Amino acid sequence: MRRGEKLPIHNRIAVLRAERRMTRAQLATAVDVNPQTVGALERGDHYPSLDLALRICAVFDLPVEAVFSRTEFTPLSAALYPAQGRDAGGTDR
Amino acid sequence: MTSAQTTPDSPTPGNPIARYQAYRTRRFLANERKWAGRLPGWRSQHRRRALVVNLTIAFVAMFAVSIACAAGVWWAPLLWLPACLVFFPAWGMLQIVVGRQGDAPSDALDEWEIQQRNAARSVGLSVTQSLMMIPVAYLVVGAVITGGTDENMAYAGGLMALTVLLVGGCTPGMILGWTRPDPDPLDE
Fold it and tell me: Region B45-55: what's the mean pLDDT?
C-alpha cells in the first residue's frame, strides 16, 4: 500500500487488556485474529485496519480515540491524576 | 481472517473462484488444526533459521548438479538424490513450523499475516523472475551455439530451471521462517 510519510499509531491495547485481565489469546478470539497479531499490535509492529481497530474498540467498549492515537499515550494513572494540587476529577483545588 | 465474512474485496459468492477459494480455505484450516502443535522444538527462530540454511545448501547442491550435468559428468544426476534427501525433510519441517503461511489462502489468515505473506511472496516472485534468467539465457545461447544438438545442455538447463522454480516457490516460506520472532509466552 502506498502511503506518504508513515505516521505512528500508538495504542493502549496492552493496558486495557491487563485492566480487564484478558490474555492475548482471549482478545484475539474476540476480534477473530491470531494471538501473535495482538502481540504485533501491542509492540507497534503492525498498524491495524479500520475494521480491526473498531472491533478492538468494541471489545473494550471504548471510542477509537481512547484506544488509538497519533501521539504517545501518557500512563492512565497520570491521565486520571494529572498533577499534584488537583483532585481526582482533574479540577483545581 | 479466519471467519468466512464477505468483504468488499471478496469474490462474489457462488462464482467458481469463490467456491475454489472456500474449498482451499477449508482444506488449509483442517490441515492447520492437524499440524498446529507438531514439532514444538523446531518453532524457535534459531531452529527455523537452521532449516532455512539447510534448504539453501540443498539448492546450491542442486544448482551444482545441473552445472556438473552441463559439463557432461555422467554420474552427476545421481547427486540430485542426496540434495533431495536434504530438501524434502527440511522443507516439510519448515512448512509445519511456519504454518504453511507462505502459500495460505487469504481467508485463512488475519490482516497482519496477509501483510507478511504478501511481502514474502513479492520477494519470492522477484527472486524467481531474476534467477530464471540464468537457465533461460543458458538454454537460448546454448541452443544457438550447439545448434540444439547437445543433450547434456538441455538436461542441465531443465535441472537449472527446476532448481530456480524450487527456490522461488520456497522463498516466501523461507523468509517467514527466517524473520518471524520467537514464540512469545504471552501469546499462549
Answer: 96
Q: Is A54 on the interface with B (CB under 8 A)?
A: no
Closest chain B residue to the Cα of A17, Cα to Cα = B186
Contact B184 A39 (CB under 8 A): yes
B43 closest CA partner among B35, B33, B54, B55? B35
CB contact under 8 Å between B1 and A32, yes or no, is yes
User: Which DSSP string corresponds to A23-92?
Assistant: -HHHHHHHHTS-HHHHHHHHHTS-PPPHHHHHHHHHHHT--HHHHEESSPPPPHHHHHS-STTB-TTS-B
Is residue B26 exposed (0-12), middle (13-18) or buried (19+ Cβ within 10 Å)? middle
| Phi, psi dihedrals of residue A92, rounded to the nearest 5° | -70, 145
The overall pTM is greater than 0.90:
no
Task: Give the cell for residue B3.
Answer: 471467519
Q: Which tens digits make up the pLDDT trace of B121-135?
A: 999 999 999 999 999
Nearest to A40 among B1, B3, B112 (CB): B112
